[in-house]
Every structure is written in structure tokens, then in C-alpha cells.
Amino acid sequence: MTPFLEVKDVRKEYGAIKAVDGVSFDVGPGEIVGVIGPNGSGKTTLFNSILGQIKPTSGHVAFCGENITGMSPLELSRRGVGRTFQTLQVFGKLSVRDNLIAAAQEFKGTLGSRLFAAPDAGLGEHADQMIEMFRLEHVAHLPAGTLSYGQQKLIDIAMAFMPAPRLVLLDEPCAGVNPSLVDQLRGLLVELNKAQGGSFVVIEHNMDFIMQLCPHVICMVEGKVLAEGPPETVQGNRQVLEAYLGN
Amino acid sequence: MGDFVQLIVSGTATGAIYALAALGFTLLWQAAGVINFAQGEFVMLPAFAMLFFVAAGAPLWLSFLLTCAVAMAVLGYGFKRVIVDPLIRHGVIPLVIATLGLSIAVKNAVRGYSAQAYPFASPFPDGQLALAGVNVSYADIGTLVLAGAIVIGLQAFLSKTVTGRAMQAVAQNTEAAKVLGINVRRMVLYVFLINAVLAVVAALLITPTYLAKFDMGDSIGQKAFFAAIIGGFNQTRGALLGGVLIGVLENVVGFYVSPAYKEGVALVLFLLVILFRPEGLLGKSEERKV
Amino acid sequence: MTARCIGLAAVIAALAVLATLLKRSDVYLMTLCCVYLMATMGLNLTVGYAGQMSLGQAAFFGIGAYHAAILLKLGWPFFVVLPIAAVACFMIGLALGFPALRVQHHYLAFATLGFNILVFLVMRNEEKITGGTFGVSAIPRPTVLGMSTEGHLAYFYFTLVSLVALAAVLWWLLRSPWGRAFAALRDNPIRAESLGVNITAYTLLAFAIGAACAGVGGVYYASLVEFIEPGPFHFSTSLMMLLAVIVGGSGRFFGPVVGTIIIILLPEALRASNMEALKFMQKWYLVFFGVAVVILMVWLPGGILSLFDRWKKAPRIEAAKP
After folding, report:
1. Which of C239, C80, C273, C89 is CA-nearest to residue B218?
2. If B26 and its partner were Cys, which of A88, B151, B239, C302 is the partner (CB 3.0–4.6 Å)?
3. Do A146 and A171 share a domain, yes or no?
4. Does C176 contact A98 at a Cβ distance shorter than 8 Å?
């Protein structure tokens, strides 16, 4: 059976530096996979290589059987692949609601038809549902750039899920977020996973978050996969502990 | 043949002057993200300043040094503090508009004072030297030597001293430079000071030929801009190549084709470059970030 | 929304009435403002709403003007010449923007700058087509709905109505999903691309539509001044247009209105004034203008209309840094 996402022996080298040194893993449909590892282990570089922000030096990535190695973010978005970034990436001057509509409008109709569509591109209701789910009703019409970090983080993540992607890669969704919001985020991701059925790959440093959210965890160290399996197994792995506690 | 060599030599000398202005322009862009639309006026003002000091009785070399000091204070530090610092975080465009406003204000202020063209004494003696069968003017030799010394000195400073390397680090990657503990603000200030001095030197070398006039900045500002783009906006060596190329080709075209087309050379080169090699002749191809 | 519409209609009606009370030269200035507004509103779309850079708007303005000058003199109807000029500028805009997109952002700025200089030189040198420095004279004004627009008042009303129509089209465009895509392109092109926004297509469109608007403005300009020569289409005019957009408030719908009024009316008012006190200004008005631009940018980088943001009582929570 062809896996949903197949990452095979991906490498990214910057001269002598091997940022990603032969990483392979599979993700099934609807699965939530966590990626952990100390800083500098190559997790974000791996994401960027899969998602077209940078071209991998070698290796092979397939999505639903199609070779997507080196495809641009635009082409990937068309195939239902989305992502969030480590830093906040919202449309600062647009309202929250417009941010959400913008996140999904390009998948409705053609460039030409969109010119004559309704101002909300028929996504108003969907955006309102998302706003309700993420509890952003009271700021829905404010410019996203004027809101607090936590609120922008929520918008950022909501945007990734507006087009109901089949595969989402989330890069440190909990970074800089206070603990109560972390719980809310975890709940939201579980809910979205059930509602939309997409697969998630999540990079995170927050161990509790990962262990409670992801049935399958991969640990990366120095560009390689060190351990893989259910959270308890990976957590108990001696090499993983050593990698985190330092040399 | 002798003519041709002479054209090359004097073209290189003129080009070296363009290169000085272009170099400052490029450094400002790389290190501070500033596109200085008033760069031409930064050359025009020192020209008048030096005339002022000379009229007040100072010898040329002293006027030059005094003007350098004033330029560093006003066009370097003043420009940075008053205009660049408040605006830089709002993006490139407000800053561009501000330098545009500055250019208009300064140019018309000088014009209001006088629209005349004033003669400017050359720092070099008149006359020519016969070198290997070719007549080369002292002015050209002097320009080449002075500009060459400055350029070589600047390159050496940038690559061999700690401060210079820190400045290069800031130009290449400001965030990384901050992380490395480099005092970015101070490095950027140095770039502004260097630009001011380069402009004064350019003024010293070019005003004898162009004459000091309120609009002398137009031509040199435009050529500095073109030179920087032609050579490669992300490379300091590009400014040098661009400047010299323009200077030489202007002379060659002016002599062999027609003087009327001389002014069009820089523009044609510029258009050719952005059509066929947009990153500039020495520039590294910067693909649009995905 | 309706309150705004009524307010706008009132302003336009007031302008119409005001025009009947003013001197011919003042009405000419107002018409000139309207004509330049067509170009600056287009530029605002490109620069303010889509975040692209254009230093060549005057070139498109000129291309539209020369289309009108030549074709109108040949007897072609105004409302045939208008779409031709618009489409021509649109196409040229596409062609100009296309190579720009393989390279960095500031490339488009340089390409438009070079384009403007080149177009200006062509206008000046191709005497057979453009009349060179002698220009094209005796450009006719159209007859609209059976009424002649020869009179200064008639032509002002015609231009004003046309401006409102163009503005309405732009307003509709910006409210459509395209407008949102332009804003996404401006605010965060990287995120936009990973959300399916075709950066290339929208950049080209924003640029080409802006160019077409300038072309339309150029057509009205030709009939207004009835004699055109290359001078007004120099690169310095492009800079003034950009200045108008930024000073008024880039990315705000009425920003160009404020900016265009300032760059057109203010110098003219100072220059034409007879007051003794302002005579002094005539020599130095550009200095004050330049200084004013610098001060304005440092104080209000978002343009004059950004003052409204500061006065609004909306809750302003500073985006926290992590």
C-alpha cells in the first residue's frame, strides 16, 4: 500500500555541513506524527526541503504516490499540502476574517472567476466557523497585525487549516505560547484532525504536547533519525535522553 | 592607436569617479538597506562647501579636509540619525521618498542661492605627461592614483581589519551579525561616514570638469545608480566595474561614434543589463526567495 | 457604506457647483488633478495594495496620451481610443513585468525606471510618429452624448464623471477576492504562496492594471491640454506620482486624492499667487516642498491618511514579541 507521505533518504548539505543527513519516514492518512530533537538537529530544514522552500541535495519525497521532490510551495498547496512556520506569518493589514478567507480563496474557482465572485469568495461561513472554533470572535474584524502574539498564533494555525489540506506540516506551533493556550491548541488540532481527516507532521519542543498529541514520534539528532515509535518508547530511549541532556 | 589608449585611460579616470559614488551607494544599500536618491546631491553639496572654504581663504587641501569633516557630520551622521533611523523599520519605500524629498529640497535650495555654474580648481596641475608614446593628463593620472588608492584602501579595510569584516558581516546578514555580538548600529554608522567621504572625494575629482552647479548631482547621481546596477547591486566590486565601464565606453562612443550619443551610453548599458543579466555583471543571481 | 456614498456624492456635487464659480484657469487645474488622479489611483493599486514598485507610471501616462493625440487627430472616436490605450498599456505592463519576476523585488523598480527613460527618449526622438520635441497639437475634445466638451467646464464635468467611474471600478476590484489576493501578496508573499496565491500572476496583474489606469489618464490628459510634448512624461513625473501615492497614504483608497492634490495644486498655487508674502515662496517653494516631504515621511511614514489610524478609538494592542 502506498503511504500517504513518503520521505526517502532526504539530504540537505550546505558545503560540508550536513543539515539533513539521510532522513526517511512514512506518514499514513489521518496520522499525526511528531518530530522532536535538540536545536539544530535539522527539523526545520527537513520541513523546508519537503515543502519546497529549499531544494534538497538528494532524496525523494512522494505524496499519495506522486513525486513531489523539489516542488514549489504553490504547486504543493494545489495538491493539498500546507504548513505553518516557526515565526508568525499572517497578513498583518488584513482583518482576521480576511486572513482566513485569503487562506482558502485561491482554491475556489479560477483566477478569472474569482474576479467576479462575491467579495468573500463564498467562504464567509467557513471562516466564521473557524473563528468560532478558535474563539477569535471578538477580534474577527481587527487587523491581524495589531493583535497579541498568542492570538496571531491562533490565526496563523487556523489559516493553514482553512483549505482543508490533506497534509499539514506544523513547525513549532507552541513556540512562545502560554500553557493554557497550548492546551487549547492541542484540543483544536485533535478536533481538526477528526473533522478534516488530514495527516499532520508536527515539530515541537514541548514534550507534553507532543506526547499527548502524537501516537507516533520521530526523534532527529544531527540531521539523522535517532529513534522512532510510540511516544513512551522514544522518550525512554537512552540515546534520545543523552542527545537532549547534552554531551 | 595612441588615441584609443588615451581614451581608455581618461575613461577609466572618469569611470573611477563614478565608481566612488556608486561604491558609496552600494554600501548604503547592502549595509543599511537604503536606496539614496539624494546621492547626486551628496556630491554636489561638498563641491559648494569646498568652494566656500576656498573663498574664505583656505588652500584646497584644507578645504577638502574640512569638507570631509562637515560631510561626515551632516551627510553621514546627520542623515542617518534624522532620516534613516526613524524610517528604516517602515520599509524601503518611505525612505526612498524621504531621500527624494531631500534631493528636491537641497537642489532647489542651492538653486535659490545661485543657478550659476562656478569654476572649481583642479587639485592636480595642468598639463600632460608623455608615457610610452601616449599623452596622459596629470589630472587623469592623479584621479586614477587617488581613486585607486581609496578603493584599494577601502577593500583592504573591509577584508583585513576586524571592523571591516564586521561591516561586511552586517552587509551580508544583519541578523547573524547581531547574534555574533557585532555592534550593528555602529557598523552602519561607519558605512554612512564612508559614503560621505567617498562623495567628497568624487566632488573633488569631478567638479573641475563639470563645474559646480545646483544640478550637477543629477548626472552623477544617475550614473552612480546605473553603475551600481550594471556592476551588480549586491557586490561592492560591481560598483567599480560598472563605473569604469561607463567611463570608458562613454569616451569610446563619444569619439568613434558621436559626442551626441555619449550621454546615452550609461542608459543603454543599464537597459541591456536588466534585460539580459539582471543581477548585474558581477552580481550573484539572487533567485526570488520561494 | 451608504453614508460614505452619500458623503462622496455630496462632495462631487459641491465640486461641480464650485467649478461654475471659479476662473477658467482654476477649473483647468481641477481637471488636471482629476486626470493625474486616474494615474495615481492606478499606481496606488500597484504599490499600495499589491506591494510592488513602479517608477515608470509617467511612461504609461505618456503612452496613453500619445495614443489619444495621434488617433483622435485621425478622427477616431474617443470611446474607441480609450480602450485601445488602456489595453496597450496593460499589454506593455505585462511584457515589462514578466522578466522582473524571475529576480528580486527591486528589479521591477529598476526595470520601470529604465523603461520610463527609454520611452521618454523615444518620444523625443521619433519625430515622424510623435512629433519629437515639437509634439502633437490641436488635439480635439470629444462630443459625449451629443454634447461638446470643448468648454473648460464641460470637459471638467466629463473628466470628473469618468474619474468617478474609474474609481468605482477600482473599488469593486479591490473588494473582490483579487483585492484580498493583492493584499496577501503585499503583506506576506511567502505565506501567500504556500496558501495557493499565484504570486507571479497577481504581481503582473497589479502592475498591468496600474499601467492601464495611467494610460486612461493619459488619454484624458491629451484632450485636456490639447497639445502634448514629451516633457510631462519624464521620469521625474513618475517620481512625483509615487510621492503623491506615498504621501497621501499608500494602500488607502483616498490616499492618492490627498497626495495628488498636494503635488499638483500646491506648487501651482504658490507659483501663481500674487500675494507679496508668497512671492518669496515662488523662489523657494520647492525647497519647502522637499523639506515637507522629508518631515512628513519621518513623522507619518504611512502617509497623511494614516493620521486617521492615530485618531481612531479602536483598541490597539501592540503585537507582542515572543
Report:
1. C239
2. B239
3. no
4. no
